[in-house]
Design a protein that fits this description.
This protein is mainly α. It folds into 2 domains: about 50-125, lambda repressor-like DNA-binding domains (434 Repressor (Amino-terminal Domain), Orthogonal Bundle), CATH 1.10.260.40; about 130-214, no CATH class. It is built from 11 helices and no strands. The longest helix is centred in the first third of the chain and has 29 residues, at about 10-40. The mean pLDDT is about 80.
Length: about 210
């Protein structure tokens, strides 16, 4: 032990350690809570708990007004953008913005082309509603108590090519050895045991989910 290690910790250091302990305790609680919610709930396949299409009219109006277009001007622009020259009438646009009717796929295409917005934004209110889909809506957030996280991690790792696997392993080994130079010594038995435990947890989770789904 060095002289530096023997020095008493300052109040600032003690407070920082206390705050870190509290943060870790809270993170562990959130992990357990999220794991329990996933364990006893059915898989979630949608990206939103709301009917986002109900806000289509509002987003349409906002996009139109951002370009300083009246409903009549937008109607004329859709007519010019339509190969058939039909476009969308002012009266129909008004009904869309009021939420009384919804546009067809052809009309969505015309509106998006004229207003320079994406169909995703018009329908979901988000240009990339499926971004990070697994993280946000299927997995919640990574949890050490979630066997499906390890299944995904394993699947992702073995989807890499040989050189990518080696790059990933080198990074992991470097991180671990920065904390403990002997970390990889005699770890095979422990690794095998942990993998079998995770596999058993995953089997139990899937069995419970299948029972719930029936």
């Amino acid at each position: 032990m060095t002289d530096k290690d023997k020095q008493p910790k300052s109040k600032k250091q003690l407070k920082a350690e206390s705050d870190l302990d509290k943060a870790m305790e809270n993170a562990e609680f959130l992990d357990r809570q999220a794991a329990e919610q996933r364990r006893y709930s059915r898989p979630k396949f949608g990206v939103s708990n709301e009917e986002t299409e109900l806000g289509l009219g509002t987003r349409l109006q906002e996009a139109r007004e951002s370009l300083k277009l009246t409903q009549g001007e937008l109607a004329e622009a859709t007519k010019q953008a339509d190969p058939q020259g039909i476009g969308i009438s002012r009266a129909v646009l008004s009904m869309y913005e009021l939420g009384k009717n919804r546009p067809s796929p052809r009309e969505i295409r015309l509106l998006c082309e004229v207003l320079r917005i994406s169909p995703n934004y018009l329908i979901y209110g988000d240009d990339d509603p499926f971004g990070n889909f697994l993280d946000r809506h299927r997995w919640g957030f990574f949890s050490e108590s979630d066997p499906e996280f390890y299944a995904l991690l394993n699947f992702a790792f073995f989807s890499l090519d040989k050189h990518q696997k080696m790059d990933v392993m080198n990074i992991i080994m470097s991180l671990l050895r920065s904390r403990d130079t002997s970390w990889f010594d005699d770890k095979t038995d422990g690794a095998n045991k942990q993998l079998l435990e995770i596999a058993e947890k995953l089997r139990e989770l899937l069995e419970e989910r299948n029972k719930t789904a029936k």
